[in-house]
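Course assignment 3, question 2. Fill in each field.
Student: A.L.
Task: Predict the tertiary structure for the chain below.
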Amino acid sequence: MIVDVHCHVIVAELRPHVSPPPAAVGEFVDPDGILAEAERAGIDRVVLSPWVQLLAGDHEQCRIQNDALAEMVLAEPRLSAFGAVPLQDPPVAVKELREVMEAKVLAGVEVPSSVGGVYLGDDRFAPFWAAAEETGAVVFIHPTTRGFDAPVFGDYYLWNTVGNPFETTITAAHMVMAGVMERHPGLRVVLAHGGGALPALRGRLRHCWSFQPQARERLREDPEESIARMYFDTVTHDPAVLRALVEFAGGDHVLLGTDHPFDMADPHAVATVRAAGLGARAERAVLGGAATQLLERGVRT
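Answer field:
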Protein backbone atom coordinates (compact mmCIF):
# COMPACT_ATOMS: atom_id res chain seq x y z
CA MET A 1 0.00 0.00 0.00
CA ILE A 2 1.67 3.21 -1.21
CA VAL A 3 0.34 6.26 0.66
CA ASP A 4 0.62 9.97 -0.17
CA VAL A 5 0.31 12.04 3.03
CA HIS A 6 0.65 15.46 1.36
CA CYS A 7 -2.16 16.09 -1.11
CA HIS A 8 -4.36 19.19 -1.08
CA VAL A 9 -8.03 19.66 -1.86
CA ILE A 10 -10.61 22.43 -2.02
CA VAL A 11 -13.87 20.89 -0.89
CA ALA A 12 -16.73 21.45 -3.33
CA GLU A 13 -18.71 23.40 -0.74
CA LEU A 14 -16.07 26.16 -0.75
CA ARG A 15 -15.22 26.10 -4.46
CA PRO A 16 -17.71 28.87 -5.39
CA HIS A 17 -15.97 31.20 -2.93
CA VAL A 18 -12.29 30.63 -3.82
CA SER A 19 -10.16 30.60 -6.94
CA PRO A 20 -7.31 28.06 -7.17
CA PRO A 21 -3.94 29.75 -7.68
CA PRO A 22 -2.06 29.56 -11.01
CA ALA A 23 0.42 27.20 -9.35
CA ALA A 24 -2.27 24.50 -9.17
CA VAL A 25 -1.64 22.23 -12.14
CA GLY A 26 -3.70 19.15 -11.19
CA GLU A 27 -7.17 18.24 -10.00
CA PHE A 28 -7.99 20.28 -6.92
CA VAL A 29 -11.66 19.61 -6.12
CA ASP A 30 -12.97 16.28 -7.39
CA PRO A 31 -11.80 13.38 -5.17
CA ASP A 32 -12.25 10.87 -8.01
CA GLY A 33 -10.01 12.98 -10.20
CA ILE A 34 -7.43 13.29 -7.45
CA LEU A 35 -7.43 9.51 -6.97
CA ALA A 36 -7.12 8.93 -10.70
CA GLU A 37 -4.04 11.14 -10.88
CA ALA A 38 -2.60 9.41 -7.82
CA GLU A 39 -3.17 6.01 -9.38
CA ARG A 40 -1.27 7.08 -12.49
CA ALA A 41 1.60 8.08 -10.18
CA GLY A 42 1.64 4.62 -8.58
CA ILE A 43 -0.10 5.69 -5.36
CA ASP A 44 -2.80 3.56 -3.72
CA ARG A 45 -4.09 5.76 -0.90
CA VAL A 46 -4.25 9.54 -0.55
CA VAL A 47 -4.41 11.66 2.59
CA LEU A 48 -6.25 14.86 1.70
CA SER A 49 -5.64 18.12 3.51
CA PRO A 50 -7.07 21.60 2.92
CA TRP A 51 -5.38 24.14 0.69
CA VAL A 52 -3.33 26.06 3.21
CA GLN A 53 -4.98 29.38 2.31
CA LEU A 54 -8.22 27.92 3.66
CA LEU A 55 -6.73 27.16 7.07
CA ALA A 56 -7.07 30.81 8.08
CA GLY A 57 -10.85 30.71 7.96
CA ASP A 58 -13.23 31.03 10.88
CA HIS A 59 -14.77 28.16 12.80
CA GLU A 60 -17.66 27.82 10.36
CA GLN A 61 -15.33 27.45 7.39
CA CYS A 62 -13.26 24.85 9.24
CA ARG A 63 -16.42 22.93 10.12
CA ILE A 64 -17.57 22.99 6.48
CA GLN A 65 -14.24 21.53 5.40
CA ASN A 66 -14.19 18.92 8.15
CA ASP A 67 -17.69 17.72 7.39
CA ALA A 68 -16.97 17.53 3.65
CA LEU A 69 -13.67 15.72 4.16
CA ALA A 70 -15.33 13.23 6.49
CA GLU A 71 -17.95 12.49 3.83
CA MET A 72 -15.20 11.87 1.28
CA VAL A 73 -13.37 9.49 3.58
CA LEU A 74 -16.51 7.55 4.47
CA ALA A 75 -17.41 7.22 0.78
CA GLU A 76 -14.00 6.09 -0.48
CA PRO A 77 -11.68 3.64 1.36
CA ARG A 78 -8.68 4.90 -0.59
CA LEU A 79 -8.99 8.30 1.07
CA SER A 80 -7.93 9.58 4.48
CA ALA A 81 -7.85 13.22 5.51
CA PHE A 82 -6.56 15.88 7.86
CA GLY A 83 -9.12 18.50 8.84
CA ALA A 84 -8.86 22.16 9.81
CA VAL A 85 -9.14 24.10 13.06
CA PRO A 86 -9.28 27.89 13.66
CA LEU A 87 -5.90 28.08 15.34
CA GLN A 88 -6.16 31.87 15.60
CA ASP A 89 -8.65 31.13 18.39
CA PRO A 90 -6.96 28.37 20.41
CA PRO A 91 -9.90 27.50 22.72
CA VAL A 92 -12.20 27.07 19.72
CA ALA A 93 -9.47 25.14 17.89
CA VAL A 94 -9.26 22.73 20.82
CA LYS A 95 -13.03 22.25 20.78
CA GLU A 96 -13.07 21.54 17.04
CA LEU A 97 -10.08 19.20 17.32
CA ARG A 98 -11.82 17.17 20.02
CA GLU A 99 -14.98 16.92 17.94
CA VAL A 100 -12.99 15.87 14.88
CA MET A 101 -11.21 13.13 16.78
CA GLU A 102 -14.34 11.94 18.62
CA ALA A 103 -15.96 11.31 15.23
CA LYS A 104 -13.16 8.82 14.45
CA VAL A 105 -13.11 9.58 10.71
CA LEU A 106 -10.35 12.13 10.12
CA ALA A 107 -6.84 11.21 11.22
CA GLY A 108 -6.02 14.64 12.57
CA VAL A 109 -5.67 18.21 11.35
CA GLU A 110 -3.47 20.39 9.21
CA VAL A 111 -2.22 23.65 10.73
CA PRO A 112 -0.24 26.56 9.30
CA SER A 113 3.32 27.11 10.43
CA SER A 114 2.39 30.46 11.95
CA VAL A 115 -0.74 32.39 12.86
CA GLY A 116 -0.57 36.14 12.48
CA GLY A 117 3.21 35.93 12.53
CA VAL A 118 3.25 33.88 15.76
CA TYR A 119 5.01 30.52 15.50
CA LEU A 120 3.74 27.31 16.98
CA GLY A 121 5.97 27.06 20.04
CA ASP A 122 4.24 30.10 21.55
CA ASP A 123 2.45 29.49 24.83
CA ARG A 124 -0.92 30.56 23.38
CA PHE A 125 -0.97 27.26 21.49
CA ALA A 126 -0.18 25.14 24.56
CA PRO A 127 -3.81 23.98 25.04
CA PHE A 128 -3.94 22.87 21.41
CA TRP A 129 -0.79 20.75 21.71
CA ALA A 130 -2.07 19.19 24.93
CA ALA A 131 -5.34 18.28 23.24
CA ALA A 132 -3.54 16.93 20.16
CA GLU A 133 -1.51 14.58 22.31
CA GLU A 134 -4.49 13.54 24.41
CA THR A 135 -6.74 12.78 21.42
CA GLY A 136 -4.08 11.02 19.36
CA ALA A 137 -4.46 13.48 16.48
CA VAL A 138 -1.88 13.61 13.72
CA VAL A 139 -0.92 17.26 13.18
CA PHE A 140 0.38 18.11 9.71
CA ILE A 141 2.31 21.41 9.74
CA HIS A 142 2.36 23.27 6.42
CA PRO A 143 3.89 26.66 5.58
CA THR A 144 1.53 29.56 5.01
CA THR A 145 3.31 30.12 1.65
CA ARG A 146 3.65 33.86 2.23
CA GLY A 147 5.41 34.04 5.55
CA PHE A 148 8.10 36.59 4.69
CA ASP A 149 7.79 40.04 3.19
CA ALA A 150 11.48 40.66 2.38
CA PRO A 151 11.67 41.84 -1.25
CA VAL A 152 14.15 39.12 -2.15
CA PHE A 153 11.42 36.51 -1.84
CA GLY A 154 9.74 38.13 -4.82
CA ASP A 155 12.67 37.15 -7.03
CA TYR A 156 13.18 33.87 -8.86
CA TYR A 157 10.27 32.05 -7.16
CA LEU A 158 12.23 32.11 -3.89
CA TRP A 159 9.03 32.65 -1.89
CA ASN A 160 8.28 29.03 -2.71
CA THR A 161 11.60 27.24 -3.14
CA VAL A 162 13.22 28.82 -0.07
CA GLY A 163 10.43 30.59 1.79
CA ASN A 164 8.12 27.62 2.22
CA PRO A 165 10.66 25.20 3.74
CA PHE A 166 12.15 28.09 5.73
CA GLU A 167 8.76 28.67 7.40
CA THR A 168 8.61 25.01 8.37
CA THR A 169 12.18 25.17 9.68
CA ILE A 170 11.43 28.13 11.93
CA THR A 171 8.23 26.80 13.45
CA ALA A 172 9.65 23.32 14.02
CA ALA A 173 12.78 24.73 15.69
CA HIS A 174 10.59 27.07 17.74
CA MET A 175 8.50 24.14 18.96
CA VAL A 176 11.60 22.14 19.82
CA MET A 177 13.38 24.89 21.73
CA ALA A 178 10.16 25.93 23.49
CA GLY A 179 9.95 22.37 24.82
CA VAL A 180 6.66 21.46 23.10
CA MET A 181 7.86 18.07 21.90
CA GLU A 182 9.51 17.35 25.25
CA ARG A 183 6.38 18.19 27.26
CA HIS A 184 4.20 16.16 24.89
CA PRO A 185 6.23 13.09 23.90
CA GLY A 186 3.13 11.45 22.45
CA LEU A 187 2.59 14.17 19.85
CA ARG A 188 2.53 13.02 16.23
CA VAL A 189 3.68 16.01 14.21
CA VAL A 190 4.34 15.72 10.46
CA LEU A 191 6.48 18.42 8.81
CA ALA A 192 5.95 19.35 5.17
CA HIS A 193 8.74 19.55 2.59
CA GLY A 194 11.14 17.25 4.37
CA GLY A 195 11.13 19.44 7.47
CA GLY A 196 12.84 22.22 5.56
CA ALA A 197 16.35 22.78 6.89
CA LEU A 198 15.59 21.46 10.38
CA PRO A 199 17.56 18.19 10.04
CA ALA A 200 20.58 20.08 8.70
CA LEU A 201 20.42 22.58 11.57
CA ARG A 202 20.17 20.05 14.38
CA GLY A 203 23.88 20.41 15.17
CA ARG A 204 23.59 24.18 15.53
CA LEU A 205 20.57 23.82 17.79
CA ARG A 206 22.31 21.19 19.89
CA HIS A 207 25.51 23.27 20.21
CA CYS A 208 23.59 26.40 21.16
CA TRP A 209 21.56 24.47 23.72
CA SER A 210 24.78 23.14 25.28
CA PHE A 211 25.97 26.55 26.48
CA GLN A 212 23.46 29.35 25.77
CA PRO A 213 21.13 30.07 28.71
CA GLN A 214 18.45 31.50 26.43
CA ALA A 215 18.36 28.23 24.47
CA ARG A 216 17.88 26.26 27.70
CA GLU A 217 15.04 28.36 29.13
CA ARG A 218 12.33 25.84 28.25
CA LEU A 219 14.11 22.73 26.99
CA ARG A 220 15.80 20.19 29.26
CA GLU A 221 16.57 17.43 26.75
CA ASP A 222 18.98 17.51 23.83
CA PRO A 223 17.15 19.23 20.94
CA GLU A 224 17.86 16.25 18.72
CA GLU A 225 15.70 14.05 20.96
CA SER A 226 12.74 16.35 20.31
CA ILE A 227 13.46 16.56 16.58
CA ALA A 228 13.63 12.78 16.36
CA ARG A 229 10.01 12.52 17.54
CA MET A 230 8.81 14.45 14.51
CA TYR A 231 7.76 12.97 11.17
CA PHE A 232 8.86 14.30 7.79
CA ASP A 233 7.38 14.03 4.32
CA THR A 234 9.53 13.17 1.29
CA VAL A 235 9.02 16.39 -0.69
CA THR A 236 12.71 17.16 -1.10
CA HIS A 237 13.01 16.68 -4.89
CA ASP A 238 16.35 14.93 -4.46
CA PRO A 239 17.06 11.25 -3.75
CA ALA A 240 20.36 12.04 -2.01
CA VAL A 241 18.73 14.59 0.29
CA LEU A 242 15.94 12.13 1.00
CA ARG A 243 18.42 9.37 1.80
CA ALA A 244 20.17 11.64 4.32
CA LEU A 245 16.80 12.47 5.89
CA VAL A 246 15.95 8.78 6.28
CA GLU A 247 19.40 8.05 7.70
CA PHE A 248 18.72 10.65 10.40
CA ALA A 249 15.01 10.18 11.11
CA GLY A 250 14.58 6.50 10.23
CA GLY A 251 12.21 5.04 7.66
CA ASP A 252 9.44 4.86 10.25
CA HIS A 253 9.43 8.67 10.55
CA VAL A 254 9.58 9.63 6.86
CA LEU A 255 6.34 9.53 4.85
CA LEU A 256 5.77 9.68 1.11
CA GLY A 257 4.32 13.02 0.00
CA THR A 258 3.67 14.67 -3.34
CA ASP A 259 2.27 18.18 -2.60
CA HIS A 260 -0.36 17.60 -5.27
CA PRO A 261 -1.70 19.55 -7.19
CA PHE A 262 0.94 22.28 -7.23
CA ASP A 263 3.72 23.04 -9.68
CA MET A 264 6.27 22.40 -6.90
CA ALA A 265 4.85 18.95 -6.23
CA ASP A 266 6.94 15.85 -6.86
CA PRO A 267 5.07 14.15 -9.72
CA HIS A 268 7.38 11.15 -9.46
CA ALA A 269 7.47 10.82 -5.69
CA VAL A 270 7.48 7.02 -5.72
CA ALA A 271 10.43 7.00 -8.13
CA THR A 272 12.25 9.53 -5.93
CA VAL A 273 11.97 7.19 -2.96
CA ARG A 274 13.08 4.17 -4.97
CA ALA A 275 16.06 6.09 -6.36
CA ALA A 276 17.27 6.99 -2.87
CA GLY A 277 18.78 3.56 -2.19
CA LEU A 278 17.15 3.20 1.22
CA GLY A 279 17.17 -0.57 1.47
CA ALA A 280 14.08 -2.74 1.21
CA ARG A 281 12.81 -2.33 4.77
CA ALA A 282 13.16 1.46 4.92
CA GLU A 283 11.74 1.84 1.42
CA ARG A 284 8.63 -0.08 2.35
CA ALA A 285 8.18 2.05 5.45
CA VAL A 286 8.59 5.34 3.59
CA LEU A 287 6.32 4.35 0.71
CA GLY A 288 3.43 3.50 2.97
CA GLY A 289 4.13 1.31 5.98
CA ALA A 290 4.91 4.16 8.35
CA ALA A 291 2.00 6.27 7.12
CA THR A 292 -0.45 3.39 7.47
CA GLN A 293 0.60 2.84 11.05
CA LEU A 294 0.46 6.54 11.86
CA LEU A 295 -2.98 6.99 10.35
CA GLU A 296 -4.40 3.97 12.11
CA ARG A 297 -3.15 5.27 15.42
CA GLY A 298 -4.55 8.72 14.63
CA VAL A 299 -8.08 7.41 14.12
CA ARG A 300 -8.79 5.86 17.49
CA THR A 301 -11.00 2.77 17.69
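Instructor remarks: The two ends are 21 Å apart (CA to CA). Strands lie at 3-9, 45-50, 79-84, 108-112, 114-115, 118-119, 138-142, 188-191, 231-233, 254-255.
Grade: pending
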